[in-house]
Amino acid sequence: MGNKIYPIGIQNFEKIRQDGYFYVDKTALMYQMVKTGSYYCLSRPRRFGKSLLISTLEAYFQGKKELFAGLMVEKLEKDWIEHPILYLDLNIEKYDVPESLDNILDKSLTAWEKLYGAEPSERSFSLRFAGIIERAYEKTGQRVVILVDEYDKPMLQAIGNEDLQKQFRDTLKPFYGALKTMDGCIKFALLTGVTKFGKVSVFSDLNNLKDISMDERFVDICGITEKEIHDNLEEELHQLAEKQKMSYEQVCAELKKCYDGYHFVGHTIGIYNPFSLLNTFDKMKFGSYWFETGTPTCLVNLLKKHHYDLERMAHEETDEQVLNSIDSESSNPIPVIYQSGYLTIKGYDERFGIYRLGFPNREVEEGFVRFLLPYYANVNKVESPFEIQKFVREVESGDYDSFFRRLQSFFADTGYDVIREQELHYENVLFIVFKLVGFYTKVEYHTSEGRIDLVLQTDKFIYVMEFKLNGTAEEALRQINEKHYSLPFEADNRKLFKVGVNFNSQTRNIEKWIVEE
Predict the structure, then answer these.
(1) Chain centre to alpha carbon of residue 368
(2) CB atoms within 10 A of CB 212
(3) Pseudo-torsion of CA 159, 260, 49, 177, nearest 10°?
(4) pLDDT tens-digit map of 204-262
(5) Cβ 341 vs Cβ 349: under 8 Å
(6) pLDDT for the residue 333
(7) Residue 134 contacts residue 185 (beta carbons within 8 Å)
(8) Cα(first)–Cα(last) distance of the chain, in Å?
(9) Contact 472, 502 (CB under 8 A)
(10) Residues near 513 by Cβ (< 8 Å), separated by ≥ 6?
């Protein structure tokens, strides 16, 4: 086994370096950022290394040269000047009432005032912050470094609550605005978060902030590239292959399929999720590590609130302005889903400036669709994975009647609130079920005006299905035959089932299915 100690859940650079944890050197990019600008904002999904980047900058601006021994920045930096640092971590609070933000700001400001002094006339958060910056500069003779981790957490947790979000915005806007007012006293500032709030932004007063979230130069400042895996973990790749009884090539392909695929700029290299990757090497097995650390239910609430067609998610198209604009009034859930890491850039049309989005990798796709199931169908979270297992076994054994009875139970007790969006609800449930079944079998799923056709293939059977809404199962089956949907499979030696299904809007369920063998 390898002798590397992986920093799972450890985000402190000094601890990583002093205690001998594995570290992928990002210090050349950090140095480039410091030397080419003063004010930065970076959004990346959770567990992507943002806090570690902030901690690395903190050690750098503390002048702790010894921590950077053997790293790229050691060759680049000559001066190692110590600067006063104001480090604000907004990640530790639950923002459900206005006071929650006030309390954490007051706590940080009070701690800084003990170091640099206070003025009785500075009563508001923004005045206190500006006064601290000024006195820190005067007292030390060095410009101040400001590092804010999870700057957007209060805003993100208040999505859907416009009053609370407005109060947080009204507090943060002047607070962050102090950075512009005190420009002459500031050496460097970085604010990191999951999202980028646009339009009525907390940054509207801070127009000197450089957003590097979609900047090609800094695309890999967080996360791990394929080259970095081979440069740093080549021996471990062979160990993982041996442990999983796979070839080296198979292990590399599986890592790529499970954890690669994040693109934060069009036409750039893919980035691997560092949390899942390090967990895989630590445990020497594949797993849904990132996804298991928690998915905010507010994402599902957004999708349902705005009656989002889930099938669109795998091939959503949008522009940069939409990707970068999140606010409480937004009726588009996609920016939040994208910036939270559940969708990523899959393609870019330079002519029209259009981005094509999709799931970054299998871990995210399967995890997210699994997560959605209990929110859309009549199944609880505990039973959910077992239900999919039963679906798969039923289609693999040719037991289509059990399959459709189980599917009927998913539509039972459909609430009154979804009646108005009935067709979409029915399509979303079918999409989730067949997407999950498709991870174990081959599924082709198509929707068009008022109907769904689907082909499901297992080792022994091929199912060609047609779903109707407020038609008849007979009509659906007739359409399969008249339009020759099964023609491509006629020569196949697997058993073919043609299935016509009707969904009734009055009973809000599958009314009937007919199977022709």
Answers:
(1) 10
(2) 19
(3) -40
(4) 666 778 889 989 999 999 999 999 999 999 999 999 999 999 999 999 999 999 999 99
(5) no
(6) 84
(7) yes
(8) 54
(9) yes
(10) 400, 404, 473, 499, 500, 501, 502
